[in-house]
Amino acid sequence: xxxxxxxxxxxxxxxxxxxxxxxxxxxxxxxxxxxxxxxxxxxxxxxxxxxxxxxxxxxxxxxxxxxxxxxxxxxxxxxxxxxxxxxxxxxxxxxxxxxxxxxxxxxxxxxxxxxxxxxxxxxxxxxxxxxxxxxxxxxxxxxxxxxxxxxxxxxxxxxxxxxxxxxxxxxxxxxxxxxxxxxxxxxxxxxxxxxxxxxxxxxxxxxxxxxxxxxxxxxxxxxxxxxxxxxxxxxxxxxxxxxxxxxxxxxxxxxxxxxxxxxxxxxxxxxxxxxxxxxxxxxxxxxxxxxxxxxxxxxxxxxxxxxxxxxxxxxxxxxxxxxxxxxxxxxxxxxxxxxxxxxxxxxxxxxxxxxxxxxxxxxxxxxxxxxxxxxxxxxxxxxxxxxxxxxxxxxxxxxxxxxxxxxxxxxxxxxxxxxxxxxxxxxxxxxxxxxxxxxxxxxxxx
Length: 446
What we know:
This protein has two domains: 1-338, Rossmann fold (3-Layer(aba) Sandwich); 342-438, 2-Layer Sandwich (GMP Synthetase, Chain A, domain 3), CATH 3.30.300. Helix content is 28%, strand content 23%. It is built from eleven helices and 19 strands. It has helices at 12-15, 19-40, 42-51, 72-78, 116-132, 156-162, 174-184, 193-205, 230-240, 351-358, 395-410; strands spanning 96-101, 111-115, 140-143, 165-167, 188-191, 218-221, 243-248, 258-260, 267-269, 274-279, 293-299, 310-319, 331-337, 342-344, 347-349, 364-375, 378-387, 416-420, 436-438. Helix 5 (116-132) crosses helix 6 (156-162), helix 8 packs parallel to helix 9 (230-240) and helix 10 (351-358) crosses helix 11. The longest helix is centred in the first third of the chain and has 22 residues, at 19-40.
């Protein structure tokens, strides 16, 4: 199917579908997938029966609230049980054409299987996101994401299906990637926000001006929250002279499930594939749209391993108000990971709150490390930063300024701010950067 390159929509009918019609489509898909999961996945049959619910109970979208939650623990406990794919899988292995795995950073890696239809629809969604941020067939695209079992690796196929010239970069060393950027002059790149920043810094230190010597017009970032933090996004844009767009994905579902549009007011989620709920992190009570809680996703069309009421561990909210871009699918806003949030003096603190402050302060590099610890049986945090090489202020003066800024923005100041010289922090990474070290031994309920 040929597309008008001047049309800003990949699939205009779908992307601008009135929300009542979108919900009608969701309901039909929800009825089908819940029935399919119950009849084909041993875990769902057992858990639905135990909860006293059955697929026929789905008469409205709200009826999904009657069904039990699952989470990462459910995946780990059922993986490999009864078959290679486990008890959450709803198709035989013969129908699976691709699996990815989670990083396993918070436990045993979990598999995410795809049928051929699952995979093709996944890649069509990726094409839609690429088109949404302005990629067109005349673009040259570098996919600088890990290809080793990572669910974001195959997303490059979505760019190829769109018609762009694709360079399968993967996790190249910085020097090699800069060579590719300078030699082939690509216009679009996808990486993590921290690496986009660090790569720009390395370019400058090696005598390459990203604005003048390279041809990057758009930078897609994912895997960390930086792309949705205004100050971080602006810092990367200023460094590269390019637009930055944030994508959001889950290994449990598929690559990018949501993406920023030109309005840059949240990330449109593929509501034709995912039903979104927000729940209270303590009680599981369903919250109203716009209220902050844990995001819960139900896959509507993925058959290899349906996820019914999957608690993502991500804290955020969904915005169903009209977007300036004209797209009708809701927009999610992510505040952070439930696992990363900590409480200081009754204030909920996310690493993203701290990053937003650090990236706005001049005379420091923007690199940071957070340490969370206990003192006098209460939770405290400290922040380590780097000052620019040409910064003439004393370490004490810089620390005081940073501490005051954090207190003003977050409401609680750090126990200490430690200042390092430029390059003194070991936080730079060609993948996701390690930003928080939790040294607590007590259990803190959130």
